[in-house]
Amino acid sequence: MIPDQMEMLSDRRLWIRPDKIYDFAVVGAGASGLLAAITAARNGAKPILLEHMEQAAKKLLATGNGKCNYTNKDQNPDFYYCAQPDFLQTVLTQFSYADTVRFFEEIGIRPLQKNGTCIYPENEQAASVRYALLAETQRLRIPLICSIGIRNIRKVSKKLRGKSVQVFEIQTKEGSVYAMSCLLATGGQAAKKTGSDGSGYLYAAQLGHTLIPPLPALTPLLVNYRDWKLPSGVRTACTASLFVDGVCAAQECGELQITDYGISGIVIFQFSRLAARALANDRQVGVRLDFKPEMTRQELSDYLYKRLHSIYHLHKTVSACLKGFLPEKLIPVLVTRAGIKPDLQSVHCTNKQAGQLAYQFKNTMLTIIGMKNFDSAQVTAGGVPLEEIHAQTMESRLVRGLFFAGEIVDVDAKCGGYNLQWAWASGYVAAKHIRKDDA
């Protein structure tokens, strides 16, 4: 029996009853929701997990290309996008990288460090991380209700041990679930097919919260190819610089992927949220590609002149001479952009033309006109603003007993396990501070 088909849920009516009040209702059984429910149960509370998909933690299976890079040893705050860095650190210090590694080791996931400081499960299978989390919910006998349709969340009065208390009523198509505290861990809008459909924003709004408009992040960018176009199907290392209104806003090194619609790859994903926000604010966005970042422009110019005039290339064209130096499909496009005919004999290339080539190889400018939609994005930028949440507890400043965790909050991060670390930490902090029956 797989853990999310738990025997205890053979009759869902046992768990959705008007006379039952849980300590903690967790809406969303993804990364942050599962960690929160487990933490609450370990602390003696009685949680329930509510998931609208047919299975829990579906999005977790796609993380790290199916290998699940679940945290990172290097927790530099610069790797996170957050309007209030102090807020972020208040949460992350309560459940650190070391705490994450320790927690997963407890439930059977040994860490494997690779790609620098990235941490993966030893077998490099995201399914094993999901299985371990669900197995722990089963061991703790946490009710997990999947395929549940939530219609509304509100606070109502209920009788508890002879006194009237304010509780959360989660109205579903199968009846209402009542709880002293409620966590919205529904994710954002990225990758809707895995469950992140933006429904959490509706619940937050029902309870009086505002919203920073959600935008796709960790996503490809669309390029204005009206005048000229880079060749699709190319993968190459480069340095990419993001420009907003002519000012450099970010710079990343890594693999670039050129597509028929624009540019992709980790080097683009890392600053895509900055590009998305700038475009949403009607600002001019561009990306400069440096295909030879290891060389200065002068070093590159000198090298190219010597290469073009080498005895080994005297009877070749400029394009042929550059094979092996750049991806082959890129060469004629960049040479042409440098103002040189690709079929020019290399021996006739002047020092000035070598300089033009060097400039183009290090300064290929692209105009960004948009980004791929949420279906292509890995995370969401935007969500419930931090001003409406207590950093120490992840509790709403507007509604007592309401908590937030994970992607629904206006915190996102670069690739490398940082978004999952935020999910684990925020889920832990919320569960640590729930109220039981003191409402």
What does this structure look like?
The protein is an alpha+beta fold and 439 residues long. It has 11 helices and 20 strands. The strands form 5 sheets. Strands 1, 2, 7, 8, 9, 10 and 19 form a 7-stranded mixed beta sheet that branches. It has a 6-stranded antiparallel barrel with strand order 12-15-14-13-16-17. The longest helix has 15 residues.
Short description:
With 439 residues, the chain is α+β, with helices and mostly antiparallel strands. 27% of the residues lie in helices and 27% in strands. The strands form 5 sheets. Strands 1, 2, 7, 8, 9, 10 and 19 form a 7-stranded mixed sheet that branches. Strands 12-15-14-13-16-17 form a 6-stranded antiparallel beta barrel.
Number of helices: 11
Percent range for β-strand residues = 25-35%
Largest sheet: 7 strands, mixed
Radius of gyration from the alpha-carbon trace, in angstroms: 26 Å
Q: How many extended strands?
A: 20
Features:
439 residues; alpha+beta; 7-stranded mixed beta sheet; 6-stranded antiparallel beta barrel; 11 helices; 20 strands; 27% helix; 27% strand; disordered N terminus
Which helices and strands appear, and what pairs or packs with what?
Blueprint: E1 21-27, H1 31-42, E2 47-50, E3 71-72, E4 80-82, H2 85-92, H3 97-106, E5 111-114, E6 118-121, H4 126-139, E7 144-145, E8 150-160, E9 163-172, E10 175-184, H5 199-206, E11 212-217, E12 221-223, E13 234-244, E14 247-258, E15 262-264, H6 266-280, E16 285-290, H7 297-308, H8 318-321, H9 331-337, H10 351-362, E17 364-371, E18 379-383, E19 402-404, E20 411-413, H11 418-432
Parallel strand pairs: 1-2, 1-10, 2-7, 10-19
Antiparallel strand pairs: 3-6, 4-20, 5-6, 8-9, 9-10, 11-18, 12-15, 12-17, 13-14, 13-16, 14-15, 16-17
Helix pairs in contact: 1-4, 1-11, 7-10
